[in-house]
Amino acid sequence: MRNRATLAAVSAVTGALALTALAVPAAQAATTAGPAVTFSELKVNSGKNIVVGTTTQVTVSATYTVTKPADLAADSFQTGPVLYRGDTLGLDSDDLLLGDDPGTCTASSSTVLKCTAKIQFRPDSTDEEGDLVNAEAGSWKLGALAAGDNGGLTWQGGLGTTKLQRKSTLTVNASPEPVKKGKTITVTGKLSRANWETNKYAGYASQYVKLQFRKAGTTTYTTVKTIKTSSTGTLSTTVTASADGYYRYSFAGTTTTPAVSATGDYIDVQ
């Protein structure tokens, strides 16, 4: 992933930011002649995982609190949340993602600001704005940045974690239909996930998926068996027809890919 290059949106001192290289322990706050502020209560996407498909930009909200000295003017610096990976947080990190624009803050006292911000996620493509590649899926750490009017930066890491995931899809088809009781039903399907580099969905190989059944007139699915996807993400298994109802596949998800369940396919058993 590229570092989000629009740090000018976080500070008016573009030149100073471009020349700054800073790496600090993630669990600490660090200052390079930056605003004397600290961050707390950072929450990105309401604490939920961030799921991105193949082409469409996903924008999530963040909320956080800034604590500052009473004599530090709120309009003398700008702030924003940061996603990062690794042990260090700074401009020299390859895995660093900021929003396009600085956060918006409202003073709740002379020393406390309540802030909101947006962070954009774009699958990689021929479009120069694309910046996600498949290797970026997984766990990320949360931090924040303050940029002063004088060009100084204040970084703070260790503010939480989130998961950035490749959107998943899952299909199911049960046949034949109708089917006589006691006969064999074949249930096929496919588990796929977004490929951020090709902007298409591709099969997710070697993943365990549950085949589930919901009897007609009931509301709860029960697991019939667990099978594994093929090298191309396909699924196929057989069951014995016993009653009218719905078959579906259900995937529990991984660090890089969210859970998903197929819409149940109805079987008429005669």
Your description of this structure?
The structure is a single chain. The protein is mainly β. It folds into two domains: 7-165, Sandwich (Immunoglobulin-like); 167-267, SOR catalytic domain (Immunoglobulin-like, Sandwich), CATH 2.60.40.730. Helices cover 2% and strands 49% of the residues. It contains one helix and 22 strands. The strands form five sheets. Strands 2, 4, 6, 8, 11, 12 and 13 form a seven-stranded mixed β-sheet that branches. A hairpin with an 8-residue loop joins strand 14 and strand 15 (184-195).
Short précis:
With 270 residues, the protein is mostly beta strands.
Question: What tags apply to this protein structure?
Answer:
270 residues; mainly beta; Immunoglobulin-like; 2 domains; 7-stranded mixed β-sheet; 5-stranded antiparallel β-sheet; 1 helix; 49% strand
Blueprint of the fold:
Layout: H1 14-19, E1 24-25, E2 29-32, E3 38-44, E4 50-52, E5 58-67, E6 77-84, E7 88-89, E8 96-98, E9 104-107, E10 112-121, E11 138-148, E12 153-156, E13 161-166, E14 168-175, E15 184-195, E16 200-203, E17 208-215, E18 222-228, E19 234-240, E20 245-251, E21 260-261, E22 265-267
